[in-house]
Amino acid sequence: MDGNLHIWQLEELLEVQGGKAKFPKPQRSIQAHTAAVASLCLVKDTYLFSGGWDSVVNVWDLRKGFEFVGSLNGHAGFVRAICGMNDDIVLTAGNDRTIRIWEVESMACSGMMTGHELPILTLLVVNGFLLSAGYDSVIKVWDVSKRLCLQNLTGHTQAVTCL
């Protein structure tokens, strides 16, 4: 919960020497947020989006060695979920009960959707539709292009923490 991103080389993690796994130190550590990192999303194999308890989404360029690109500001409260809609759109959600729509290249917020009564914990894109869920126990199905909730899936009696 230190706000850091740690980067390892996968090949090093998989090395076994003398029958024992090697546990290397991170190749790099980045102070990404001023509070805990709660969500990550990789877009285009180029940009890493990190959401934190500091209400900010930060963007990192992997092609340039995890260079900081900028911050997406707009949420009030923890950013708990980030999901790529496609290579051009990233969706974020969290404690403020909003889903924000971000243009990847311009890093501009192009819209917002509301409807959850409690904080949103998870997002998932399936066949072009967005699913969102959280503490209100409801899974919502969204048409992002129309900014419209198409369906509420009910039945859970506790928070839906993953999709």
UniProtKB/TrEMBL annotation:
GO cellular component: transferase complex
Keyword list, A-Z: Repeat, WD repeat
Entries under InterPro entries matching the protein: WD40/YVTN_repeat-like_dom_sf, WD40_PAC1, WD40_repeat_CS, WD40_repeat_dom_sf, WD40_rpt
UniProt keyword annotation of Repeat present: yes
WD repeat start and end residues: 30-65, 72-106, 113-152
Pfam family, one: WD40
Name under which the protein is recorded: Uncharacterized protein
Lineage: Eukaryota, Cryptophyceae, Pyrenomonadales, Geminigeraceae, Guillardia
